[in-house]
Amino acid sequence: MNSNNPDRRGFLKRSAALAGLAVGAIPFAKGKAHAAEIQMPDDPTIEDLSYGARSRYETTNRVHSVGALNANGLRNLTPLQDTMGVITPAALHFLVLREQHLPNIDPREHTLLIHGMVDRPLIFTMEELHRLPSVSRIHFLECTGNSGLMHYKSYLADKKRSPELTKDIHIIQALHGRTSCSEWTGVPLSLLLQEAGVQKGAKWIVAEGNDTEHHAKSMPLEKCLDDVIVAYGQNGEALRREQGYPLRLIVPGWQGVNNVKYLRNIKVVDKPYYFQSETSAYTNLRPDGKATIYESQVGPKSLITFPCDAHHLKEPGYYQITGLAWCGRGAISRVEVSTDNGKTWKDAVLQTPVFRKAHTRFRFDWHWNGSETVIMSRCTNEFGDIQPTMLELAQLWGNNREPHLSGEAVERFWESANISEFLNNPIQLWKIGQDGSVTDALYSTFNVKV
Amino acid sequence: MRYTALSTSRSSFRLLAIVLLAFGVAAAQSPTYKLGRTPTDTEIRAWDHAVGPDGKELPAGSGSAVEGAKIYATKCSFCHGKNAEGIFPFPRLAGGVGTYNTPNPIRSSAAYLPFATTIWDFINRAMPREAEGTLNPDEIYALTAFILFKNGTIKETDVLDRKTLPEIVMPNRYGFFPDTPQSEPDKDRGWLPYWNQVPIKKDAKPASSERAPAAQ
pTM here? Predict the structure, then answer.
């Protein structure tokens, strides 16, 4: 198991931080201000320009996932409120590492092993993977827990405990920032599996990374042969370290945990392995006490990113409402926007081309007349699947198998079920105040105690 | 005149197509690019440690909760508590059976699992933090036994090894849906989950797909 080189120098420091956390200290970060700003100097030399940096007037950053959850790994969230178009810069792509270490792998020493139920076990160097036929595709990634009540509780707790440190942290980023979209480049996994020759009877694969916990995930062979990419590139350059450098899986449209980083090992097998990452975590407890397991596909979801709770409307007048829509199945075919609290809906314009299993930018002309209102968006995919409201989502979750439960009962359950790692895709509501303030009007309506 | 494919007769072209087709079928089963090399047995063994429910990858070795208690006290209790109760935010390992259908379910790391092999696999894979990979198989069997004993699933003296561990029936074995994980997409709904979208209503307007032709 010690085939990697964990950074032992960090051992004492991290242990101290964890020990501190266990007794209630706050090891996270100081919000935006803490970040090392990587900016172009005022008088750049020719060397400064060899790898670009942004203007020092631009300060949007990933923020740490705040709260105790940080003890279980490194998390940084995308500032959706500042995103443009559909591509998230690699430097702002969200990350969730299920451990404390950020692996630092030399690509000359990294290999990918394919074995198990194959005719020819194979081991590929990075150089060989780069020689093989490649594809580049635009896909979103989303953490399973994105937009979850668990993170809302954590957000509230931190606001209460450290109002100063968290004043620049908003719902749009703290709750919804676990999704990003990139152009990924790599080799189709189907090609590698064909080179190895999958044997009859094989139905699943086990993919494993070379991080300290050797994150492992089972997934059906059928999906792997469909559209999974063994990726080494992101947005035109090599993967970033925090995104799995030098090699990772991209499992289009499936929840983030499947996209194994630092990919080192693929074993072809006949059944799922029930790893910790797919049993004690990443399963969803239903009201009847049964839990759904091996859930994968992200449901249709959209979100207004301007205006949202990170913004303030200066005066009545013209504003372009814009946001993102995505779905784990097919392409987004329609986004509707309501600016009157859901009474009427109008079609937004979609940025084309629309890519399957990718963020889709929508835009909508709006003249704000200065009165209080609630704005929201909902999306539909090419199969006609529609994004639900929070109440519909709770009812779908409970009522499918518990028809005797009322919507309210399911909603109460939802509030308490903060340990489920839900794929949350409810319609997000933003309230516009007469003073131009923009606030969350969904999560704040629940009776959540911290 | 130079010979070209165009100068061949129609029937021989058809024959060529049949030959290519037959070759194509054969090619699907043999490597096309011939990159990558055959790994050595040692290279495969080094990464063949994932343990599934049938436990066939489990190594030799054994341990009971009696030995496990000592190892747990020095290597695990700092984060998981003396009795596997967890120290926030580090997870509770045992207990919680019977609470899953209540408003405040306790979903501990081990009790909730459908298979006991997951405990062995995860300790071997990822524990203890900062010293992953330092426990030997006997110690991992013993720790697995200790956690299962704390959970009330086995007795303190029960010895776990590659044969007995996969035989344990976990209390929440049938607590998951679906019983058989989906290995092929549903033709109408794709892959799970398909509960988190509004079912298409008969009177619903069709989506305006002409607005946005999908790329890729």
Answer: 0.88
